[in-house]
């Protein structure tokens, strides 16, 4: 629903949409149209199949008053959690999660590890069951893991209003801007992106950055261009989102204290980074919140404590919340959170502790609309109404503007925070939210990047941060001025050079087609790191889904040309191996003398226009080079340099002088 997407069924014989819906489960007890649709959508969550679960124990929820302290969380064994992590392809140092987010028929939520369970044993609670279903196939969505804390604009506004000094926040911001602008120097010195700001961009890159650094390729233009993409993205996040990493903080999945040892308001938080030998237990005062935090009461102070029973339970990289009786459970006070998969930010940095606590907002949901019987026509009508009437983004932007112009404590901001809560519930309550005219901003702060005629210069923290990064981040590729002598001087068979040259011509055409299709640079396509520039920001924010198709298109391209090279080497075993071919690919890309070698014949019948990815090819010496036929936003053709890096592992093997294939760098 939130993604405004739907599944379509091509009906064939008895295979109909009605049959698919019947097989999903029994939704007849759900009389709220919106929630009925949401329950059906639950079946389409992205999961990996684990196994059929036969040993299911049902246990009660822990309730105190009107609040459920175990809302959405049950138990599983350590073995099952380990298997789920392996199925999701986690690295060896992330194979022992403390909690897993799952779907199981009509059940959704989180299973935290419990020492008394073995094998495929699980325990479910009533709060996890959303509808009846006969399916017993366990699907895993996500596993708990270590993640650093980040601030955003909403959190910064609230923390500053609650007593965190501007100096503390600006110092953190300025340090990360400086780190981003020195990205090439910093990464060359550390040889490990995991020690730098913006780790997610490195981790999401398809290009093996660490491998190249370890083999002293740090001056390579391809690598430097990818680092510039990452630098641009980090600076963009800092300027337009104020996304600031907090080293003394974590972002973790929340679970319940199943042992009942934590006092009301206390948390247990043991962390272990992927490369750390042991865990660290956080103790003392911490600031805690859940995104999105809009109401002043959404950011709170609590005590992180240690307890022998929890310490011995192997619970790591999760936030454990108290289940002892109190007026209200802590997760509910944090933007109306629960434990069915919500993640929480915990900060123990002494400079980032709020100095006062505001009364939490009441997150009791509005009374939903009900009907006697929910039909598909009802659901269809609601989906259309939702897409037309969803104002969640509008409310959030109004609040950000009003909080700057006034204060988060102002009556208008409090009203907008309440509307935001109702807008969040709209997909399940079906109750439409109307934004009163008097809550619209009188003007827009400059950091929201609206038209100058309706904007004003904000002298508050976000305005200062916004103007600190000028000019706006924009990707500029590095000049191709470096050749690696280790590869340029290696003798290569002329047959390999000729074939690689022709293959590069075809590859460049195919890659250029992908670049034009998505308006991306070469480095963006190769690395899978899409740069978000000011001119493209809104489109990219709405179309983040293009990353998947880009990755698939480039992987197919890579697979095809690697296969062609391997087939060529098999046909010419006497002339060299795949290492020779990789080096030939490098030389015909970077070494002018290699490119100027005569190649009148097309080796082995290879023709440029035989490419499976494009229908034709216009040679590089075309006189029509003014690019008048390019559509707005398209990429101007340039000399491409990524071809040899299809064989990055082979190139690394050459420079290290070994015959054993270099082990692939694990993806974080």
Automatic annotation (TrEMBL):
Domain RDRP C-terminal head: residue ranges: 489-664
A Gene Ontology term for the protein's cellular component: nuclear RNA-directed RNA polymerase complex
Domain RDRP core: 1-469
Gene Ontology molecular function terms on file: RNA binding; RNA-directed RNA polymerase activity
The EC number(s) this enzyme carries: 2.7.7.48
Swiss-Prot/TrEMBL catalytic activity: RNA(n) + a ribonucleoside 5'-triphosphate = RNA(n+1) + diphosphate
Any one Pfam family match given in the protein's UniProt record, by short name: RdRP_head
Region feature (Disordered): 600-633
A GO biological process held by the record: siRNA processing
Keyword line: Nucleotidyltransferase, RNA-binding, RNA-directed RNA polymerase, RNA-mediated gene silencing, Transferase
Source organism superkingdom: Eukaryota
Keyword field contains Transferase: yes
Composition skew (Acidic residues), residue ranges: 617-632
Annotated family: Belongs to the RdRP family.
UniProt protein name: RNA-dependent RNA polymerase
Organism: Rickenella mellea
